[in-house]
Structure formats: structure tokens, C-alpha cells
Amino acid sequence: MPPSSNMEAFQKVLSSSQHIIAVAGAGLSTASGIPTFRGAGGMWRKHDAMSLATPEAFESNPARVWQFYHYRREKALKAKPNAAHYALAKFSLSSIRHTVSPNSTFTLITQNVDGLSQRAWDDFVSKDLGGVTPPEEDERARILEMHGRLFDVTCISEACGHTELNFSSPICQVLKGTENLVDEGVIEPDISMRDLPRCSKCGRLARPGVVWFGEEPHDLEYIDVLVEEADLCLVVGTSSTVYPAASYANVVKRRGGKVAVFNLDRSQGDNQADFLFLGPCEETLPMALGLTAESNVQRA
Fold first, then answer.
1. Residue 106 pLDDT more than 50?
2. Are 269 and 260 in contact (CB under 8 A)?
């Protein structure tokens, strides 16, 4: 049976669900102007962007990899959360969620490293909650950034391992302006390793604090527990091609739960879905969660 696009039927399932997870991918941030770097057009300068997201690429050419991540940092710093980010942030607050899904739990498991989901929550707390998070809210259960964060900077030394949050723009002077060198004819600048970002604790070379291909994502054991108990999985803005995240919806489905997909286009995971809502997730997701502009006013 093909997946349903009946919003009312989905909301009935939502209202009776007890343990809800959302698995988000790059499509969540598309409307915020964040490039996906996957599939057709996934190039940065003349390089396959995915080939730069590896430990081997950093070992071979740390200057090139840092330029790529500097470019991504600058894009993310200028971006703003969109309506889908805010819908997930508001849905994560129990007092709002329980009006549409009584007594349920919710966790956002995001593959994105842009930090926009966290910024949406911070904006929501600041503007809607007066800067005060209700004490009953479980901060850890609200959002898990399984692939790390662009703005974390990590020492390459295992003996040190220091990680810190760094929103500097640029992160170091030698990278300033390199984000604009995107034309194919531009020669890659010659950057010395000693001028790249360094660990503030021990002075050794630092790397972007993201999870690269071949590395283990964060919080896997905890995520496995959440996936095993989930009775509703929202798949938001992801083509379900990167594992282990790509497997989570199938696990929920096999255990008798429901799966709802919110994507701009069809993807390989659609056939397993109970519900499929095609279109911009910044439009479909707030509506599905009962968080349209009108309902937000009522609950504010």
C-alpha cells in the first residue's frame, strides 16, 4: 500500500503516539540557505565535497579541508533557522507537544552540523519563554547532534582531545575571504599548516569538530535506545542514504511503529513510510505538528 498524504490521519496517529523521534537531514536547512553538498551539484570549488569530509583528506591537506569548513561555517553564521526548525523546537517543549500528543516524549536526532536546530531552540526560549527553560524539560532528550557541530574545534592530539565552541568569523585570519574563492578558475591559495586553527589548550593543530566518514557518530548507544522504544518516527529532509541514521525508520517500522516522511522530493525510503508529505518541510512540518502560525499564537 502506498504511503498516505492525509494530514488528518497523520495527526490522529500523532495524538496517540507515546515515544516520538525525528530524524533530520540536510533538507531541514535547505530553506535557510545551507548547501547540501550531496548528489548532483555537490561540488565545492572543483572538489567533490564529500571526499573532503574524511580523516584521510584532513591528514593529506588540512589547509584545503579547513577552507571547506570555513566556507561552511560562514554560510551557517549568516543563515537563520526556518519554520521547520522552529516547529521542531516548539514541539520539543512538553507543554506545547502535549496539546497535540498527550504524555508523549520527543527527541530530535539530527545529522546536520549547522547548529540551526539549537539556535531555533535558543530563539524560542528567548522570545517565547522569556529566557527561562521550564525545569521539567530534559535538555539531553531534546536534541542529539549525532554528526557533531561545525562550530566545535577539536585538537588532533588524542592525548589532549580538547574541544571548544568557537563562533569566530573568520576562525583564523589566514582563512578570511577564502569562502569567496568558488570560481573554477581561481587558484587554491597556498596556506601554511602553522597558520591554521590551533588548539587553545596545547597549541597543536585543531580540526573541525564534526564526524567525518569512517568515524563513529555521537550518542549511538543512547540513540539506539530511543529508536527501539519509538512508536512514531518523523523523517525530515533526508534521503536516508547515510547509515546508521538511514536505518532508524526501518527499525521503528519493524517494531510496529509508524513512519512519516517530510521531503521535498521522493527518496528511497518512501516505500516503507506510512505517511509521505512532499513539499518544503518548512511548510508541511509545522502544519502536520499542529504548529501553523495560527496555532502558535494560541499557544504562545
1. yes
2. no
Cβ burial of 227 (10 Å; 0-12, 13-18, 19+) is buried
Helix (H/G/I), strand (E/B), else coil: 143 = strand
278 vs 264: CA distance, rounded Å: 5
What is the C-alpha separation between 28 and 235, in angstroms, rounded? 10
Query: Which three cell numbers, joined as nine digits, stand for 146?
Result: 549525532
Instruction: Dump pLDDT digits (tens) for 52-78.
Output: 999 999 999 999 999 999 999 999 999
Concerning whether 218 is annotated as a catalytic residue, the answer is no
Beta carbons within 10 angstroms of residue 201's beta carbon: 14
CA 245/CA 252 separation, integer angstroms: 12
Kindly give, in sequence order, each residue whose CB lies less than 8 Å from that of residue 143, ignoring residues fewer than 6 positions away: 92, 107, 108, 110, 117, 118, 121
38: confidence class by pLDDT, cuts 50, 70, 90: low
Catalytic residue among 19, 147, 162, 218: 147
The residue among 296, 285, 294 whose CA lies nearest residue 28 is 285
**Beta strands of 113-257 (E only): which ranges?**
143-145, 148-155, 163-165, 206-210, 232-236
Q: Which pLDDT belongs to residue 39?
A: 55
pLDDT at 298 over 50: no
Q: For 103-112, what is the mean pLDDT?
A: 95
Amino acid at site 190? D
Count of Cβ atoms closer than 10 Å to residue 228 Cβ? 13
Pairing of strands 163-165, 148-155: antiparallel
Q: How is residue 275 written as a grid cell?
A: 505517511
Q: Let me know: does 166 contact 151? Beta carbons within 8 Å.
A: yes
